[in-house]
Amino acid sequence: QVQLQESGPGLVKASQTLSLTCTVSGGSISSESYYWSWIRQPAGKGLEWIGRIYSTGSPTTYNPSLQSRVAISVDTSKNQFSLRLSSVTAADTAVYYCARVPRSPEHCSSTSCYTFDSWGQGTLVTVSS
Amino acid sequence: DIQMTQSPSSVSASVGDRVTITCRASQDISSWLAWYQQKPGKAPKLLIYAASSLQSGVPSRFSGSGSGTDFTLTISSLQPEDFATYYCQQADSFPPVFGPGTKVDFK
Fold this sequence. Notes:
heterodimer; A: mainly beta; seven-stranded mixed β-sheet; four-stranded antiparallel β-sheet; 11 strands; 0% helix; globular; B: mainly beta
């Protein structure tokens, strides 16, 4: 059974870059059957999708609300994918989750795939001033 | 972006109760809706995908229905482990958007 685990600094200074890594175990990140995604959740609030990547590194899609500041990359040799969010502010303080996105027909609409079937435990990132 | 709303925002219920949560999309998303359960301090867990398909390992007391813009999640007989917050999410088009959540707590 696949497991996802987020890692990275829990504290980032305002205006700097947040960097997180998701390590996938129990399955290959190179599988053609999945995309890999980041989602975040501010304390006491709802869920916000950040972006998604395929194992080849393309295509990569980002939430338009964050697109100018976000980059997601993949390292198949380490079975990991990563998130970078630049110019952070207090509004970026949240629990960050990585998640798996199946590419099977039963999970995908005619235009894309956005169902999150496995999640990491989440990691809290606090932006300090 | 497609907007998602949920009602009620919270519901108080007892063990054994039938609980129904409603989700509405701002435009037609066909059957491309997912439901997640989240317990405090834990990651969301996929319960239902494609509006009515039960995710592997999820108890059959959970069911989903609907299409177009209106959807429901039903818990047929609430169990102690079901007290949590439930989120719907449109999976039809870019970008995916989650509903604001419905908290199910003890009456």
